[in-house]
Amino acid sequence: MSDLANEPGPAIRLRLAEEKNVWLCTVRPNGSAHVTPVWFVYQSSRWWIGSDDGSVKIRNIRAEPRVSLALEDGRFPVVAEGDASLVREGFPRDVVAAFERKYGWDVSAPTGPGSTRVLVEVQVRRWLLAGTAQ
Question: Global pTM?
Fold first, then answer.
């Protein structure tokens, strides 16, 4: 596969701004894949995903931070492989504002009593784009 570690071009950045869902793949403790659709923003050359701290994806990331992300349109694939880190407090204001603009959602607000929100920040190691897979 062809590596593209730099920022993607304008057409891909537009898709990242407009598309609502991305498939997040994490690794379970037994080595199997856990794939789930999530809301995201792409901001400051990073993918950002909001989640409850107790979710399966967060437990998986704590144990194994390597993740993959794929936009939904398989005809024009955009896949990113990267390393996830968890932000538990001090969410970047620009990221919170981007979620509000895109989804009308306060990504920092707990979903219920006793729940804790986290942000998943994914730094891309490799982009796999349409026409680059071998």
Answer: 0.91
Q: What is the CATH number of the domain that holds 42?
A: 2.30.110.10
Neighbour tally for 28: CB within 10 Å: 13
Question: Over the stretch 67-81, which tens digit does the pLDDT of each residue have?
Answer: 999 999 888 899 999
Reported as type and span, the H/E element at residue 119 is strand 117-129
**CA-based angle 91:95:96, to the nearest 5?**
70
The residues that bridge with 50 in the sheet, in sequence order, are 119
Q: How many domains does the chain have?
A: 1
| Both tokens assigned to 113 | 């009593």
The CA distance from 84 to 86, in Å, is: 7
134, part of any domain: no
